[in-house]
UniProtKB/TrEMBL annotation:
Compartmental location: Cell membrane
Database matches in InterPro entries: ABC_transp_permease
Cellular component GO terms, alphabetical: plasma membrane
Protein name per its UniProtKB record: ABC transporter permease
Pfam families recorded: BPD_transp_2 (PF02653)
Membrane topology: Multi-pass membrane protein
Domain of life of the source: Bacteria
Membrane-spanning parts: 16-34, 55-79, 99-124, 136-155, 175-196, 225-245, 257-274, 281-301, 307-326
GO MF: transmembrane transporter activity
Keywords, ordered alphabetically: Cell inner membrane, Cell membrane, Membrane, Transmembrane, Transmembrane helix, Transport
């Protein structure tokens, strides 16, 4: 039964990816007609290439946890906490006016420390979910507040600015004309795709999310798997925090507060089943593209208030999911009639 359910879900979400492709193509065509100058501007696409990586990287981590049947709402807290720690360490090791070599050393040490903190924070979530057996939504809501509180405590509630120029030039710069945040996002996406589709770890995630009981009887150490999954999500959040800090050129405890629900929106819109067991990286990437283009296009229509952005996001999610649900019901009803 588990394999049948998993196969059915996979076919369903393949159709969902096709719908996302059609929606994205229609959206691009519409904007090309209505706002040709804005849509075809190189500056527009370059700006989008800087804007979406931070939330996109967080969403990739959330995707991993949701495939197991869980969720991670603490990504923004982890990102800001690691950002505050990174900024504090860098400024302590390389005050303003420090030599370039000293700055690079400070950046390297601070970034490695931030990544380590992200892994530990994610592993804490995994431990509470897998070993203590607290529901993931409650754990990650709690740790979101915990990590945000730590960031507030370390920063005094203030923005930490004056970062070493070496940091912003490396993580906020460009390589061969391509924004560094975009390159980082592509690298993270490739790694996540390899883990999901080329390693046994990914197959175990789908098995656990599809049928936890079957996974248990197959000898799968689900607790250890969950700890590692949430640790990876924490690592993604830490990377996103580093990108976020480079984009803002500062660290603060409340940067990107809207990203908590936006990451969930991206993952669900991308076709990852909320109950776990299915979902593909391609779907999430398409969802990121759709929402980023929608977000940017709101600014092109001056008669539309920017606050309508999330209203539009919610409407898109409801339209895509409702269409998928209606198609599933129609297919089920047709199959039932054929069997009769």
């Amino acid at each position: 039964m588990a394999s049948v359910s998993f196969t059915a879900r996979s076919r369903h979400w393949d159709a969902h990816i096709l719908r996302l492709v059609v929606f994205l193509a229609a959206l691009c065509l519409l904007l090309l007609v209505l706002k040709t100058r804005d849509f075809t501007s190189f500056r527009t696409w370059q700006t989008m290439g800087v804007q979406f990586p931070e939330v996109g990287i967080m969403a990739l981590g959330v995707m991993l946890t949701m495939i197991t049947g869980g969720i991670d709402l603490s990504s923004v807290g982890v990102a800001n906490m690691t950002g505050v720690v990174t900024a504090t360490v860098m400024l302590a090791m390389a005050p303003r006016g420090a030599a370039a070599g000293q700055q690079l050393t400070a950046v390297l040490v601070a970034v490695l420390l931030a990544l380590l903190i992200g892994v530990v924070a994610g592993a804490l979530n995994g431990f509470l979910v897998a070993v203590v057996r607290i529901p993931a939504i409650l754990v990650t809501l709690g740790t979101l507040e915990l990590f945000t509180g730590i960031a507030v405590l370390l920063s005094g509630g203030e923005s930490i600015s004056g970062l070493p120029p070496a940091y912003t030039s490396v993580l906020g710069g460009r390589i061969a004309g391509i924004p560094t945040p975009l390159i980082i996002f592509v690298v993270v996406a490739l790694i996540v795709g390899f883990v999901l589709h080329k390693m046994s770890f990914g197959a175990k995630l789908y098995l656990l999310g599809s049928n936890a009981t079957a996974a248990k009887f197959s000898g799968l150490n689900s607790a250890w798997l969950l700890v590692r999954t949430y640790a990876l999500s924490g690592l993604c959040a830490a990377v996103a925090g580093l990108v976020l800090m480079a984009n803002y050129n500062s660290a603060k405890a409340d940067n990107g507060v809207s990203y908590t629900l936006l990451t969930v929106l991206i993952v669900v819109l991308g076709g990852v089943h909320p109950n776990g067991g299915s979902g593909k990286l391609l779907g999430v990437l398409l969802a990121i593209a759709i929402l980023q283009i929608l977000s940017s296009s709101v600014n092109w229509f001056h008669q539309i208030n920017g606050f309508y952005r999330f209203l539009i996001f919610g409407a898109v999610l409801l339209i895509v999911i409702s269409t998928a649900d209606l198609r599933s019901r129609f297919r089920f009803r047709r199959n039932s009639q054929e069997q009769q």
